[in-house]
Amino acid sequence: MIIVGAGGHGLATAYYLATVHGITNVAVLEKGWLGGGNTGRNTTIVRSNYLFDESAGLYDHAVKLWEGLSQELNYNVMFSQRGVLMLAHNIHDVQSFKRHVHANRLNGVDNEWLTAEECRDFCPPLNIDASTMRYPVLGGALQRRAGTARHDAVAWGYARGADARGVDIIQNCAVTGIRRGPDGAVTGVETSRGFIGAKKVGVVAAGNTSVVMAMAGQRMPLESYPLQALVSEPIKPIFPCVVMSNTIHAYISQSDKGELVIGAGTDAYTSYTQRGALHITTHTLDAICELFPMFRRMRMLRNWGGIVDVTPDRSPIIAKTGVSGLYVNCGWGTGGFKATPGSGHVFAHTIAKDEPHPINAPFTIDRFRDGFLIDEAAAAAVAH
Amino acid sequence: MSGAFRLPSGGRIDRSRPVRFTFDGRDCRGFAGDTLASALLAEGRHLIGRSFKYHRPRGFLSAGSDEPNALVGVGRDEAHYTPNLRATQVELYDGLVAESQNRWPSLDLDVGGINNLLAPLLPAGFYYKTFMWPKKAWTSFYEPKIRAAAGLGRSPGAADADRYTQHYAHCEVLVVGGGPAGLAAALAASDSGQRVVLCDEQAEFGGSLLSERQAMIEGLPAAEWAGQAAAELAARANVTLLTRTTAFGYFPHNMIGLCERVTDHLGVADPRLPRERLWQLRAREVVICAGAHERPIVFPDNDRPGILLAEAGRTYVNRYAVQPGTRAVVFTATDSAYRAALDLRAAGIKVAAIADLRPEANGPWPTMARKAGIDVRTGTSVTGTSGRLRIRQAQLAPIRADGSVGTSEPVACDLLLMSGGFTPSVHLFSQSRGKLAWNANLGAYLPDVSVEAERSAGACRGVYGLEAVLADGFAQGAAAARAAGGTTSPVRGLAVKATDCGHDASSARRPTAAIACSPRPSSTGRTTSPPRTSSLPPARASSRSSTSSATRRPAWPPTRARPRT
Amino acid sequence: MLIIACPYCGPRPELEFRYGGEAHVARPVDPSTLSDEDWGAFLYQRANPRGLHAERWRHVHGCGRFFNALRDTTTDFFAATYETGTPRPAGTPADGETSR
Ligand SMILES: Cc1cc2nc3c(=O)[nH]c(=O)nc-3n(C[C@H](O)[C@H](O)[C@H](O)COP(=O)(O)OP(=O)(O)OC[C@H]3O[C@@H](n4cnc5c(N)ncnc54)[C@H](O)[C@@H]3O)c2cc1C
Ligand SMILES: [Zn+2]
Q1: pTM here?
Q2: Which residues surround ligand 2, an ion (CB under 5 A)?
Q3: Of A96, B120, B441, C24, whose CA is between 20 and 30 Å from B184?
Q4: Nearest C-alpha of chain B: how many angstroms from A255?
């Protein structure tokens, strides 16, 4: 079996193929370096308070795996359940978040409503003085089990675990073609380092999924956009949790290293350049400075971009494809890091058994033909 | 009077304007024109910070924006407090309040320093392999402890009291960096009457010229020439000069982000002024004149306070009239450090020895150094240093023909200058997505293939001799103006009288034993390869010159698009 | 921030425009006769190429008009902009080729 892409999702897939299904004759092919794609570029927010049942099932499956992951991998992925607070700034936000709170509870996912003062008590740097804000804080939804994890460690931990069980991880090896037999089924892949035969190929190439799937003649319901993030210089602990604001459009946390980690939405146009425009970043920082005026003098240290693959309903695809032996795990857009363990776990099942795990059964490509969208895009203004 | 280590005369400080400031609560003095770093050095203060992980005592390494150690918090109250500023960039003003960071209870007595003793037990990445059991302890115990140890400065404690603005602007030619190359480029580019913007992160234009003692340009001392050139530019209506302005990002289609620090250097600022101005500048052509950074040399304990880059030593002596020590050892792989040694000597600092990694050194500067009676030891390495909060002694050892290191001899010193050659500052070029090429002669990466409408000039593309730098800057400035539609072909001699040390050039041969002598990797810096014989780098290749230009360039200059059909 | 040459107004900064996704996606003349497969493909499947991309832009803070552009998604440089309703300019490389 071949996994295309050594990001967190590809490596987790290989790990669970080996540990859960006993399949170790697996090669993970990576055109760059291990974890050098979105896995190494994301802002590490982990949460599961999505609106729809299907999403709650998938993301909470992941959170449960996160909770034991360091021990399972014997590698500290620094999963830190410091809480994710989503701020409401207008009546629509309030109604929508309260609906989320109720829906989540019905699905056994923790989520609670806080008043503005409770938000400030949970996150002291937060400005809730309505007289100084264009969009005052009206309250927020808090998921306490949510938090962050150390992104590189996730990739390295899964890679170590997979490698120890006999999986081959080949870096600097770009897949350039997908070879198919007379019956149309996959027979292997062409790479920059030669042909590799395989009966099953799982594509986990994030922003490059359309390009890889086109090698098998498959058009995808995907568009690839640049998503930027940035960090400040490291400072002593000041920020206890993760705060997101969909309305004024920014989110922030503090890494264990001390950097303030900041992000927001994608750039406006599709691109593969892994960079974006300055006005996107300044817009994000305007929002941060409004919410946290005491950070305004902090200086930013690094700014970068990744390429995220976005589906029309902002929910992922973890599925079989129109080509026998070809599987795809994509469409995580701006928010797939949080799903890494769950995604790998159910995708490994899908490849090994040639049928989806119940958790990922709704996340087909066919939903865009049949109309069974899982429309988190409409349910929340922003992903992550 | 300020500082016991202030030279009685010279420098670019304004002795008629004494300035008072505090550092860690202690009253200190300096002059207008000082940086916080030069003023502290004038008071004999070398210990300025603690390293991130092991809390090793750290001093000033450089005199500019490449400073890794001297990070301080500045601000009279929480609403004006900024952490992690480089003391080498903080301009002194009356009433400035600065504090050191990452130490407890004080800089001189720091408990975190215990980590230094534990270093052998804390290899890189050890976090990932520990702190997992018992499961609950990560969030309740280990993580809070790790977080408390992380970070350098601290966040301001109150809402920022200042205002900020932004500015969108256009120009035909943007010149980034106002050293000799940038000044020459701006002089040439503005000849055509097109809009030229010249920016520099420092308080005054001149760059390396401000640290020169002997070089003359067009009959003037170098620093004076820089002032003259800036005045000439300021008199041209088509030129915008921006000091204290950092070009921090190169964005698609020749958009450059500039951060202009408007009031940070003022004790009392006009309340109508913003603290900073963000420029989003669209230039038709960009000339990058960002200079080069001197490389440290890797040897054991090369991070003690009192160990500086050689050019930084020159800058403190010549530009700020400060003695960074009284007895120096110079450790080098280049000729330029000999010039630094002679500048120290001229400022009354005893140069105990020059240890040169190379088997021989016979250029004009080494010859002058020997003539001046300095103890020059070629084929010699520094194998270690001692001194707790300041260097006290360096170990000098001969490098044998087979590359092994002989017995070392201690040399007492309170200052060690090092020079491992120069690295062209190619950051902006790389951000523009230009491709670098390795130049084996210079032992450095140089700009090669351009993507955006930009070009590099001077040290940032490996051109080092002063006369060559000025000529290169002028030629690239003129070429940029022509590429942006200008029609003139300016000519200017820019005659130089100086003894070249060719930085990496001519006399330097790759030392045989080089750095292999270090018994263990140093806790700072990465291994650097000392330079070899050099020639000027080849002219840069450009993907823009050929037929492909139509598709690679942004939709600019403003031609009207396809006719309607 | 990109500079985009509106065919009607000339080069303007990206802030004046709204992105409109892939160009030349023709709406089926009679959707009711289409298979689910084809209708889904029309609605959702996109070329999303690495390299030249024919795409729509709208000059919202300008003339307000839609137009098409050819942009290289590996460099973000434009090869051409042209009016809506006109075919892709002759002689330009196909989708996914680079403009180099
Ligand atoms: C700036 C930013 C912030 C984000 N913040 C968050 C967040 O806070 N929370 C969250 O949950 N998610 C976040 N995300 C999204 C998250 O990063 C991704 O959804 C997730 O990491 C995807 O993992 P992956 O393993 O599928 O992709 P990747 O890590 O991108 O791995 C795909 C790999 O495939 C390789 N590849 C591609 N083509 C080929 C080929 N032809 N041959 C071989 N290899 C190939 C790539 O090189 C890459 O390494 C963010 C993303 C970005 C860019
Ligand atoms: Zn228009």
Answers
A1: 0.92
A2: C 6, 8-9, 59, 62-63
A3: B441
A4: 8
